[in-house]
Amino acid sequence: MSISKAATVLAVCGAVVTGLLGFRNATAQHAETKEAKIEKAVAILIPTKDSKVSGRVTFSHEGGKNTVHAVLHGLTPGEHGFHIHEYGVWSEDGMASGGHYNPTSHKHAGLDVKERHVGDLGNITADAKGNAELDLKDAGFLFHGPTSIIGRGVVVHAKADDLKTQPSGDAGGRLAVGVIGVAKP
């Protein structure tokens, strides 16, 4: 091959590589832009075997603040542990959802402690009819990056979370599990 043909082939290959790298960078920037625009996520809670607990949990990021709004039905009156778990998987006993979501390796704690599991949402309290509603502001979760809650599980437990027993607050069995998915804002 002549030097001029080799130079042409090299120039074409260089242009293709440059184009592919530019496409890759544009695609990565587009993905980052799309991720940053997630403002809302929802989990529909499905009862585990022998449970009647169901509900909906909405996670929102608006005006620089994170909020959690939960509405549950079918609980026994009183407090119940309420957490984000590692896996967004439902199973009859709820155990497929794994442990509390803890990508930062902090100890389990209540909402008043800054360094805690990302999944620590405290307790939700059911009234005499077994209905519960919760509104909280919580800076512990994100919709993107290494502490993203998208695709994780939400679990409601049979007992109150004591907010101190490691690693999970001794909250008992799992009454309902939901998967956190991106929602339309």
Automatic annotation (TrEMBL):
Pfam families: Sod_Cu (PF00080)
EC nos: 1.15.1.1
Residues making up the signal peptide according to the UniProt record: 1-28
Enzyme class, first EC level, given as a word: oxidoreductase
Residues of the Superoxide dismutase copper/zinc binding domain: 53-180
Transmembrane segments: none
Keywords linked to the UniProt accession: Oxidoreductase, Signal
SUPFAM superfamilies per UniProt: Cu,Zn superoxide dismutase-like
InterPro entries assigned: SOD-like_Cu/Zn_dom_sf, SOD_Cu/Zn_/chaperone, SOD_Cu_Zn_dom
GO molecular function, one term: copper ion binding
Stated family: Belongs to the Cu-Zn superoxide dismutase family.
Name assigned to this protein: Superoxide dismutase
Organism for this UniProt entry: Paludisphaera borealis
Gene name, Swiss-Prot/TrEMBL: sodC
